[in-house]
Design a protein that fits this description.
Length: about 1550
């Protein structure tokens, strides 16, 4: 780690300390074995001096030695095997696992990441690595400085035993192979071990006296141990200092870890693995079991086929990270908790020895003190003085040899010159007493006793000599220790960094000694950390990593990663990458616990960053490692992550294998946690929360809780409310700020919100009418505001509804819940047994006050014999890759109370494994996953964000969402609606007749049934008590008295003027008054359906006629119908509703365009001078190239007005239109004789025999719904209607001298109904008869109205040209008004004869008849218009072909009084006399007169505004013939 628990001042003296050989007799070891310890193990906790010591250098200067540590070990003549050394290193790292507790200073906060930077395993590895390195001849730091002989007082001849041990040591020193001794005659110390439990104190004292006499007082010691008697128990709180030192369970722990290695799955054992980082030999290391002796794990429990599985990173990058980890199946469960961004990894129990032994049970605290005293006396009184003497002796020896050597070398160089010496790689090139080796030995002795200044001077001397001799291994070692000496001095005379770099380069490049280069790097790392050079430290560590040293490379890479984290500007991505590489090397080194920890730390950085391949790779490795270590909870979670997010770069084959691994991990986890509970939950079909809570959680397929819809009974077409499939390829990634829906989905959600608002408005409208009937104060029959205490009976709860209230349902009613399952994977997901997870809280909701009950309802114990809720499940469902599938689940409550829907439960079935790659699973495993595993997934929708108060706006707060918390009430009435003969396709404007059956399927009677429809939809309801008889068409027909041919039809209609007694649906007996809040549109939307005996009992049904009209625009039409009814009795419900939706596809039919204009005919006395010309254009819009193109026939045109009656101006008897044909129909609208404020209906039929009875349902009812926004007249009682209907036309004739004026706009609109019939071919060669009608309101003159909204401005080209021709001028002139305020006409003879030979000029008197058609007095100014010649007219026609040609071929002039003014009262007539002068015979148009009109106020004065130019007069033709005097 970057900051270790051991400082560099403690580290260097700890790893470089004097080594003492220990030689014990068997009886001494037996005395120590009572405490489950060897003598060396017993001494380990007490090997460090507890007090300061003093040492003198060669100049007899004293120096303080602090915390001197001694290392006792048993010498062995055999070099330890490489396998034992590697396993020792492996066990050292394996045991040093992180603890669960958070130690202060062990974590580092970087941004929002909390990372663990405490790595005790690295410290243990570093210390053990340096101590277990092979002993080399080029340095003496680990050579034995002294030897301790231990003999027990129980020995028969203790003095002889000491002599025998001494001889044995001398023999080992003479061999000069192994072990290594500093000198042949090292410091010898004699220890007499006395077992106090045996007594015999006198014998021990006598032997000790003999020892002092024979070996010296300062070389002998008596140590008493085992002071506690065997019968005495060990007191509580007795310290155990051997716990952290005794490694007797190393092999056991390693065996527990490594015995689980399935060597057949991943490679060979550690013994066969070439790890050059492990030391080659260990002095005094106890025997360890090799990996070949460890039993292999049972491979049947591992995941088969894993050798064929590859992680996603190996697919995208050709990287060794794809190597597979061997499985481990015997480790105990040790869960790993992932809390946000903080990961706390606990050590697996496989790395902790389970067979703990009690150490030192016979050693008292006094014995512990005696051990410390012995070590102090051994070091202070024996070892340190011996080293002082050795330093002085070596100093004298080296100085003397150096003087002679320098003299000889200078003389030789003078006479023979210098030569280049070969590189000396090993120490055997020097003799044992060479001055260079003596200098190195002297420097090492000084370094061991902390004489760093003396050591540096001799290291500097030695490195210079070695460099001169090209002994590079010796040189590198001297440079390394010189750097350490400078480092330990504190005050640098030279920079140690250059020394360290030189030593490492020589070790690695020249000497090819990676082990010593690694040791030097570890020490150099401490120096760089001390100076805060973390980037340089990371570079040095990474340089020493190689493919051959997995364990060392893993540790070094991990430390380099933490160094990147310790920089002033942390390099977080470099940290994550190197931690990932460290985890990979840990995995290759069979350190799965550390690999799991490293991958988990790296995952913290990579997750939620959008690096899906890297994240999937880490999740995959973590899952495999966790399963191998029996961290099943973590393994399940990791594989869950692989399947939960939307990674698009993973192959479907890989995701299929991920799913298999997840199911197997989950199954193992369930079997380990509770097998009985697992069987109960997996085999049970119940979705009660008590059973479902035993199921594991799953997050795929993904469920968006906000899209969840609850559909209560009363939505008759609920399947149409399901969400369409959504392609998730267009969805944004995780962590994006974009919305989680596509544009189509957002549009659908917005449309649903509008529709829900429409349903609520319809329900509120019906409630107002219903409450008005029972409220005596509401005499108008309508309430202008929502009644107090009104509660909407919401039938649908979704993302755009108010979900703060509880959904209400009754017992026995099925509730449907729609969820959207999204499969983000690239493989299909197979689900079975999908059902809702629920929890019921029984509580009484019988009274009205219980509508809000349930918040504080206590959970009650249900009767186990009855089923409180019946759930219907979806047996199987396959969700396609990267798609969404809506699923409708239902449940039926059988008990009253609060029913909470908590989520869904389902089985995930393993899909068929891909054929490519991978091994097939065994038959047992395949059968175990064939039925799948059962999971649960919770649904917790979130309410709308609150934004009312300041606190809510400044923070993120959400309101309650209770859409899944149902309130179950006692039985209630429930209406069921069935449409018979519902069309699926209609033409635009087509009317279809249906029979609707209404059934009460509830348990309570209902009353006061009303049907409500929206404004934009047309549906007419009949009378239950008066059914419509069967007929051939949609409309009722009546016979005609005269043939239908032009004017006769109009006259017939004129004689049969019908009074329309009421506006559709507006003249109910309950609503006869008027109110400012009443609108005809609201009244037309509500229709009462009379029930037999005013009630509909449970199980009873009624039938009613219904007419549906297709919309004006083609496309998909939605017809919504709300059935509103009251609940009989005093219950919590005042009313209930039924929502029904029909979807009809509407195709094009015909287009109707109409226009009303003033008549331009010359006013004559006694005629209606203010009649209107109505032009109706009918066009067949069907495509001409269509195979089944319908033909349309116009049957009848119905006019609805209170002032005009309609008649035809043409004699066409049959109007049939083929594709793209247009018929032009011209009608005349004449004023009614009497303006009585009533509405009259005029029928203009084009049928040969019968005509449509326009007063019969549904003709006028549909017209009234379509045009009710502009009411024609107030309705009258039926008896007055009958009186007016019988009135004769003669009685209604007014005086002939009075004509009502024509206003600027029509005061009462004229309604036009076009009834048509079509022969529509079907795809089978047949055809059907379709009937329909179009409606238009003519509200102003000269304004075209079309049946198609988008084409409302279109008019017939023929009508435009006809109007222009009749007006005699350009119809587009801006100066011409749209209305004729004053109508005029020329009165003269049609033909005149004149003899121009007798009289050259012909003067013809002409009268201009004027009529004021305006509703005010006007002033008229008459001006002559200059006539144009025929030639001029022809020229203008050629220049402007679009301008109509002037009528007349000769020119004339007005003579006499040509300019006059006169005033006309409202509706008055007058004449103006003019004289026309002609010079030749010809064909003349005498309508060349301009009229200017000024409006006059009531007092007769002229208005200051300018005159209004009137349109040209209609043509007035004159034929002037020439006669001779003879004729």
């Amino acid at each position: 780690m970057a900051h270790t628990a051991q400082s560099w001042q403690e580290l260097i003296p700890d790893v470089f300390c004097p080594h003492i050989a220990v030689m014990c007799t068997k009886d001494a070891e037996a005395a120590c074995k009572k405490n489950n310890l060897t003598f060396v193990e017993m001494m380990r906790p007490f090997c460090q001096l507890t007090c300061e010591a003093h040492v003198r250098d060669a100049h007899n200067q004293p120096h303080v030695v602090k915390n001197l540590r001694l290392r006792f070990s048993e010498p062995s003549s055999e070099v330890p095997s490489m396998g034992a050394t590697k396993q020792t290193m492996h066990n050292t790292v394996l045991k040093a696992q992180p603890s669960g507790a958070i130690v202060p200073g062990s974590t580092l906060q970087v941004g929002n990441l909390t990372l663990n930077v405490l790595t005790p395993w690295f410290e243990s590895y570093r210390k053990q690595y340096i101590q277990l390195m092979r002993v080399s001849d080029h340095e003496y730091l680990r050579h034995y400085v002294g030897c301790l002989f231990v003999v027990s007082t129980s020995h028969a001849r203790p003095m002889d035993a000491f002599i025998d041990l001494q001889k044995k040591q001398q023999d080992m020193a003479k061999e000069k192979t192994y072990p290594k001794w500093l000198t042949p005659y090292v410091f010898n110390y004699y220890l007499l071990l006395h077992d106090s439990s045996r007594g015999e104190e006198d014998n021990a004292h006598s032997i000790f006296q003999s020892m002092k006499a024979a070996f010296g007082q300062f070389n002998s010691h008596l140590l008493r141990i085992n002071s506690r008697s065997p019968d005495a128990s060990m007191p509580d709180g007795m310290p155990d200092p051997w716990g952290q030192y005794v490694n007797r369970s190393d092999s056991t722990a390693a065996g527990d870890e490594l015995a689980d290695n399935d060597l057949s799955r991943g490679g060979s054992s550690l013994t066969n693995h070439n790890d050059a980082s492990a030391p080659a030999s260990v002095a005094g290391t106890p025997n360890h079991a090799t990996l070949e002796d460890i039993s292999k794990a049972d491979a049947d429990d591992t995941l088969t086929g894993s050798s064929a599985m590859s992680d996603p990173l190996s697919q995208a990058l050709a990287d060794p990270l794809s190597a597979q980890a061997p499985a481990v199946d015997t480790a105990d469960d040790s869960p790993i908790s992932v809390q946000g961004t903080h990961i706390n990894v606990r050590v697996s129990s496989s790395a902790v020895p389970t067979n703990f032994e009690l150490h030192g049970q016979f050693l008292t605290v006094s014995d512990h003190d005696r051990l410390r005293i012995f070590v102090n006396e051994f070091a202070v009184r024996g070892l340190i003085p011996h080293i002082e003497r050795s330093i002085r002796a070596l100093t004298d020896q080296v100085n003397s040899k150096k003087g002679i050597q320098r003299t000889l070398y200078s003389a030789t160089k003078k006479w023979f010159g210098s030569t280049n010496k070969p590189v000396i790689m090993q120490g055997q090139s020097y003799s044992a007493d060479a001055a260079e080796l003596q200098s190195r030995k002297l420097a090492d002795l000084a370094f061991l006793v902390q004489l760093y200044e003396t050591a540096y001077s001799w290291y500097h001397t030695a490195k210079r000599d070695f460099h001169n001799d090209n002994a590079m291994l010796h040189y590198a070692g001297a440079v390394e220790m010189a750097a350490l000496s400078l480092f330990m001095q504190g005050a640098y005379r030279r920079d140690p960094q250059a020394y360290f770099e030189e030593a490492i380069n020589n070790y690695e490049s020249v000497c090819k000694s990676h082990q010593f280069a690694l040791r030097s790097t570890l020490l150099f790392f401490e120096f760089l950390k001390f100076r805060g050079l973390y980037k340089e430290a990371a570079t040095a560590l990474i340089r020493m990593t190689s493919d051959e040293t997995d364990l060392a490379a893993a540790l070094l890479t991990e430390q380099a990663a933490i160094c990147y984290l310790r920089l002033n500007s942390p390099m977080i991505r470099k940290y994550a990458m190197h931690m990932l590489l460290a985890g990979h090397r840990f995995k290759k080194a069979y350190q799965r616990q550390h690999a799991l920890r490293a991958y988990s730390l790296a995952l913290q950085v990579y997750q939620t960053k959008g690096w899906w391949i890297a994240e999937d790779h880490m999740n995959f490795i973590i899952g495999r490692l966790a399963i191998d270590l029996h961290e099943l909870n973590l393994g399940q979670e990791s594989f869950h992550q692989l399947l939960a997010h939307r990674s698009r770069l993973i192959a479907p084959t890989q995701q299929s294998l991920y799913l298999q691994e997840f199911l197997l991990a989950t199954k193992k986890f369930l079997l380990k946690s509770d097998k009985a509970a697992m069987e109960k939950s997996q085999l049970s079909t119940s979705s009660c929360v008590d059973i479902a809570n035993l199921l594991p959680l799953a997050r795929f397929p993904r469920i968006d809780a906000q899209l969840t819809r609850v559909i209560l009974p009363g939505v008759a077409d609920s399947t149409k409310l399901m969400t369409p499939d959504v392609d998730v390829n267009a969805l944004p990634e995780e962590g994006s700020v974009e919305p989680a829906h596509t544009a189509e989905r957002q549009a659908a959600d917005d449309e649903e919100g509008k529709r829900e608002e429409l349903w609520l408005c319809m329900e509120e409208l019906a409630a107002r009418f219903t409450l008005a009937e029972s409220d005596s104060a509401a005499r108008n029959g309508y309430l202008s505001s929502t009644p107090s205490g009104f509660v909407w009976d919401v039938r649908l709860f979704g993302p755009h509804t108010d979900n703060s209230q509880y959904p209400r349902c009754a017992l026995g009613e099925r509730v449907m819940v729609e969820i959207v399952l999204t499969n983000d994977l690239q493989i299909p997901l197979s689900l079975t047994g999908i059902s809702l997870m629920w929890q019921l809280f029984p509580v009484s909701l019988s009274s009205k006050s219980a509508t809000t009950a349930g918040d504080n309802a206590d959970e009650a114990v249900l009767d186990e014999d009855s089923e409180p809720v019946i759930c219907n499940s979806v047996p199987d469902l396959i969700i396609a890759p990267r798609s969404s599938q809506p699923v409708c689940l239902s449940l039926t409550p059988q008990r009253e109370g609060k029913l909470h829907i908590l989520g869904v439960v389902y089985n995930i079935v393993e899909t068929t494994p891909p054929k490519e790659g991978g091994r097939a699973r065994s038959g047992t495993q395949r059968e175990s996953l064939a039925s799948g595993l059962r999971f649960r997934q919770e649904i917790e929708p979130r309410g709308h964000r609150l934004n009312l108060t300041k606190d809510q706006r400044c923070s993120v707060m959400y309101g309650p969402d209770r859409r899944l918390q149902l309130a179950v009430y006692p039985p209630m009435p429930l209406l069921k609606i069935e449409f018979d003969n519902v069309p699926t396709m209609l033409l635009c404007g087509e009317v279809h007749h249906c029979i609707v059956k209404l059934t009460n399927v509830g348990c309570v009677a209902l009353r006061r049934l009303r049907a409500v429809c929206p404004e934009s939809q047309q549906i007419v309801w009949g009378d239950v008590k008066k059914r419509v008889p069967e007929r051939s068409g949609i409309y009722s027909t009546v016979g005609q008295s005269t043939p239908s041919n032009g004017s006769s039809t109009a006259q017939s209609c004129e004689l049969r003027d019908k009074v329309w007694p009421c506006f559709p649906l507006a003249a109910s007996s309950a609503f006869t008054g008027s109110s400012p809040a009443v609108t005809e549109a609201d009244r037309a939307r509500v229709c009462d359906i009379d029930l037999p005996s005013e009630r509909l009992e449970p199980g009873s049904s009624v039938e009613v006629d219904c007419w549906i009209r297709g919309g004006a625009l083609p496309g998909r039409q939605t017809i919504d119908t709300l059935m509103y009814f009251d609940v009989d009795g005093d219950t919590a419900f005042t009313h209930r509703v039924l929502r029904h939706t029909n979807h009809i596809q509407v195709s094009e039919s015909i287009r109707i365009a109409a226009r009303a204009r003033q008549s331009v005919a010359t006013p004559t006395p006694g005629c209606d001078r203010n009649q209107l010309l109505v032009s109706v254009d009918v066009e067949n819009l069907s495509q001409a190239d269509a195979v089944a193109s319908p033909k349309f026939t116009v049957n009848q045109i119905v006019g609805v007005s209170s002032q005009f009656t309609m008649s035809s101006l043409q004699k066409d008897n049959f109007l049939e239109l083929s594709s793209r044909e247009t018929a032009y129909i011209h009608l005349k609208a004449s004023h009614l004789p009497v303006d009585d404020g009533r509405v009259y209906v005029s029928d203009v039929s084009f049928m040969s025999d019968d005509q449509v009875d326009s007063l019969a349902i549904p003709c006028l009812e549909l017209f009234g719904q379509d045009s009710v926004a502009k009411p024609f007249a107030a309705a009258e009682p039926d008896h007055k209607v009958a009186e007016r209907k019988n009135r004769s036309p003669a009685a209604m004739q007014p005086a002939p001298t009075h004509h009502p004026p024509v206003p600027a706009s029509i005061a009462t609109p004229i309604g036009i109904i076009v009834l048509w019939q079509a022969c529509v071919p079907d795809g089978d060669g047949g055809s059907r008869q379709a009937y329909g009608q179009y409606h238009m309101l003519l509200e102003s003159l000269e304004s075209p109205v079309s049946s198609v909204t988008a084409q409302s401005a279109m008019v017939s080209s023929f009508s435009a040209s006809l109007r222009a021709g009749m007006e005699g001028g350009d119809s587009t002139a801006t100066s011409t008004p749209d209305l004729l305020l004053v109508k005029g006409g020329m009165l003269h003879a049609d033909k005149v004869r004149h003899d121009f030979t007798v009289k050259r000029l012909c003067i013809l008197p002409v009268e201009l008849s004027l009529h004021n058609s305006h509703d005010a007095d006007v002033e008229v100014e008459v001006l002559p218009r200059a006539p144009s010649a025929a030639g001029t007219a022809d020229t203008e026609q050629q220049a402007s072909p679009s301008k109509p040609k002037a009528i007349g071929s000769a020119a004339y002039a007005w003579v006499g009084c040509t300019h006059s003014k006169l005033q006309l009262k409202k509706g008055a007539d007058s004449t103006v006399r003019l004289n026309a002068c002609f010079t030749r015979p010809g064909f003349y148009n005498l309508a060349n007169v301009r009229l200017r009109v000024r409006k006059l106020p009531g007092d007769g004065s002229v208005v200051a505004s300018g005159p209004i130019e009137q349109r040209p007069l209609p043509p007035s033709l004159l034929v002037l013939e020439e006669t001779t005097s003879s004729g």
